[in-house]
Amino acid sequence: MDAAASNPATVPEQRSGSASDLVVLGLGYVGLPLAAEAVSAGLKVTGFDVSARVVDGLNNAVSHIDDLSSEDVNTMLDKGFSATTDPACLATARTIVICVPTPLSPEGGPDLGAVTSASKAVAAHMSPGTLVILESTTYPGTTEEVVRPLLEESGLVAGSDFRLAFSPERIDPGNQTFGVANTPKVVGGLTEECGEAAAAFYENFVNTVVRTRGTREAEMAKLLENTYRHVNIALVNEMAVFCQELGVDLWDSISAAATKPFGFQAFYPGPGVGGHCIPIDPNYLSYKVKTLGYPFRFVELAQEINGRMPSYVTQRAQELLNDSGLALSRSKVLLLGVTYKADIADQRESPARPVARKLAAKGATLTYHDPHVESWEVDGVNVPRSTDLEQALAEADLTVLLTDHGEYRPKLLNEYARLLLDTRGVLRRPDPDEAAEVPAQFRRRADREGIQVL
Ligand SMILES: NC(=O)c1ccc[n+]([C@@H]2O[C@H](COP(=O)([O-])OP(=O)(O)OC[C@H]3O[C@@H](n4cnc5c(N)ncnc54)[C@H](O)[C@@H]3O)[C@@H](O)[C@H]2O)c1
């Protein structure tokens, strides 16, 4: 048992007259929705961010993330929210939640630079009795081994002078069903009392709080969730490649398997994995496992398979053109959707970029269509945007659908695209315009030549 856990002393209550119930550090995809939910639960919330652009935008009611509109930010401001670049706001916060980015370093390992600088800012200002929670995704041990010593540079001791916990963020950008309030919140405290305090804080605005034994278990829960997705996506991606050669329609097989009411969860092939979590978080776990002297083989294999998908998409695109007597180097290729997932504007780690890079390297003339992205550069080169979808489909020699935005309807694609490679299985879904189920023969085979699903 560590020193804090063995210390039975109760953490002192913070002095009254706090300026904020909550200060959120890092006002991005994770921090801002959290702040919004806390504001609507009646908490007095201040947002701290090192970016003056983000802070100025928010104080002028301009949202910079998909899940909150500028109107939502305006409502937050009306209810007392304010954003600042001044860390002095940390001095009077009852609870501080750290939601800063945890990207990969150029060597592919964890880059905890933002977490350490946020922790130092907290240490320089926090008062006794504060509850500090880390939400940034990271490897197991970070809260205790990295954050705790930095916070204790304040002279305050974790578990006795202030409370410390880890709670992974599970936000799914663009998800209309599950948000902060109705997604169960996993919480792990440094001590029993730290865990209780963190759970009580989240219960202000989250319906279900799930406690883990400690901070490491909460850190690991997040990495397990994301590694599970990464590995299962790699499984179907690898199967998609050989099913094509075997003449098996994998999409049909997945639909059939998904009818099993237990023991199976459907994952679907695609052009690669994107977003801020799936391609990055498992690296944190494999970094930690490597410190034990051996690799995390499932993650490495999944990375290899998912990382090869953009090359596979390029190869399929080339073959599809070839079947029609066209060379990729002399073809106009339209990329449909360049964000990492449907119906949001987030382009982080989107596989569209490596696909575009590979197609351009083979001489294709590229354009893109994406209702959420006004301009798009790949390696500093501007890719022309098409805004008229029907015209763009009709003019391109080949369309490669990379992101299944809602407006990419099967009927429209079928009618207008000359050649189409659908990497998301849009053609395997019922067309919302046609209400009826997609007929079985349509599910099994594309309805005309020149249309293929990955
Ligand atoms: N985006 C997601 O869907 C998602 C989901 C689950 C978990 N996460 C994790 O949550 C964390 C935050 O991700 P995000 O998507 O919100 O990032 P983001 O890039 O959208 O926002 C992070 C914000 O933190 C600010 N920042 C950077 N350093 C700072 C510092 N030292 N002090 C204060 N502010 C600072 C940045 O200016 C930025 O506004 C990451 O660890 C990420 O892995 C993200």
UniProtKB/TrEMBL annotation:
This is Nucleotide sugar dehydrogenase. It comes from Nocardiopsis terrae. InterPro entries: 6-PGluconate_DH-like_C_sf, NAD(P)-bd_dom_sf, UDP-Glc/GDP-Man, UDP-Glc/GDP-Man_DH_C, UDP-Glc/GDP-Man_DH_C_sf, UDP-Glc/GDP-Man_DH_dimer, UDP-Glc/GDP-Man_DH_N, UDP_ManNAc/GlcNAc_DH. Keywords: NAD, Oxidoreductase. The keyword Oxidoreductase applies. SMART domains: UDPG_MGDP_dh_C (SM00984). It comes from the Bacteria. Residues 334-429 form the UDP-glucose/GDP-mannose dehydrogenase C-terminal domain. Belongs to the UDP-glucose/GDP-mannose dehydrogenase family.
